[in-house]
Amino acid sequence: MPVRRLPRLRSLLLLLTLVILILPLAGLWFLRLYESALIRQTESELVSQAAVLAGAFKAERRHILAIDPTIAEAPVPERHFAPGNDGNEPAYRLTRHRGLDLALDPVMPPPPDPVPPPTAPTALSQRAGEMLAPVLGETKPITLAALRVVDRSGVIVATTGDDLGRSIAGRDEIDKALVGQPVSVMRWREKQAPQVQGGINRGSLLRVFVALPVIEGDQIVGAVLLSRTPSTLAQAVRGKLPSLIAMTALLVGIGVVLSLLVSRVITRPLGQLVAHAKKIADGEAAASPAIRHPGTLEVAELFSAVAKMADTLDRRANYIRGFAANVSHEFKTPLAGAKGAIELLSDHAATMSESERVHFLTVVASSVDRLELLVRRLVDFARADMMRPVPSAPVALAPILERLAADYRKRGLDVIVMADGVVIDLAAEAVEIVISNLLENSLRYAGPGARVTIEAVRDDAGATVIVTDNGPGISEGNAERIFEPFFTTKRDRGGTGLGLSTVRAIITSAGGSIALINPSPQGAAFRIRLAERR
Fold it and tell me: Which CATH architecture has domain 391-531?
């Protein structure tokens, strides 16, 4: 994917912040939380009005009975008492419920029209309804609710509509109220409400119905039925539109500010890092500069890692340049010697004496041997420099050292080995390269007849091998450079300067270390430390 088509981090941060701000609004929109709250508010208001209307209906009935006791209704043939009731407490108790919820409660069909009653309402309820009629008429313009009062058989005795004297028995909410159960339901409207531009009109398509029983003592003497269309979300929001716009603008502003702040804290340091990384890639910068305001710990650590990487690359580049120069120098001498001898033989071989021809052929042979040795040492050094530690079984050190000691004793070097029972976590081939290079140096610099002692000990942390000879030793001036590639003081004796460099590369790749102990003219001593692998 082309880099130019990738989004910027600041754009993603801004988008993420805006999405986080919008999610609550989206949840409010799709879950209808606020609309359900409006419906519950309407239900609560209707319940309160119904309770007042039921109390007024009972008060009117009592007032009428006080004036004319002969108008009393016959008791209900069958009394209904709650389980365990001893007859001294009302059988019907109004209980509160959780309230209507658009997500949980069904919306019932529109209510059926009132029908002619099978029997006329009782005289007491009818007169009480007539007394309440003016109150209902005064209440409707204020509450905007449809109000109905029915007697115990479901006949309307007071209403704000034109259905007085008709029956609404058979409706679910009325039937339940007449047996003592308060009911709240949602029904679709008889007629669809007009649509509101840009609003959610589900609330305007339905009505909330609340039916409340009227209980006199232990008898249900009637019920009140109230209904009203709840406010729509658009209607509720319209009055608070300026505040909502201001709040939305504030939230969006906060989101933009936060995005810009995060962008400054994160993207600016990253931009500096990218710019400098490009310079490093183009070879214009050697190391990453310190950042003044990293913003976050991760960015600071990233800068530190890039700086370390740049420094490593720079040192590696310098090392490669120096190594290439040394290789060129080391190869140049034998090549020049061989080339010169071959040219002399080619031009003057016929006039040369036998001893002169032998001499020049010896020069060519020694130059070739020198080149062969250099190539072999370079191969060993390259293998050691690229070596990576790999898990291996512990290797017994004594047999390897005894075998190498026997080989060098034949070449005139007295080698003493003290490594019984010591095992190390290093491949046998690597051990042979390390020890043979150290013995080769002792043979070259101390000469035949010199003594070398190899002592190995092991502890809980790993193994320590100390190799000591009694040769001329290493001066303090040369001690700091002996591990540098191609550094040697015995080039005339065939030294390549790669032996100790190879040894250090192998030991370092295995997680160990090698050091010269107390450089002095009285022998050389090297300490090799190999940590135990976990």
Answer: 2-Layer Sandwich (3.30)
